[in-house]
Amino acid sequence: MSQSFVAARTTAGQAAELVLAGDLDNPARLTVPDLLGRPQHRAEVAFECATSGIQAIHVDGGYRAWG
Fold this sequence. Notes:
The chain is an alpha+beta fold. Helices cover 21% and strands 43% of the residues. The chain has two helices and four strands; from the N terminus they run αββαββ. The chain has helices spanning 2-10, 32-36; strands spanning 17-20, 28-31, 40-49, 53-63.
């Protein structure tokens, strides 16, 4: 995911934003530089099928958009 943010940061034109809106305590607009300034987090993710059980487990990571 971080490669996408680096590419967005170097692309000419309007800066990309992530808008957190709705019934939230802290609505926000996060730009690519805002997200790049946040620490990355990793989590083990399991994909589970209702009929076949766990199909795959892998480590996923990226930037947190909240606290």
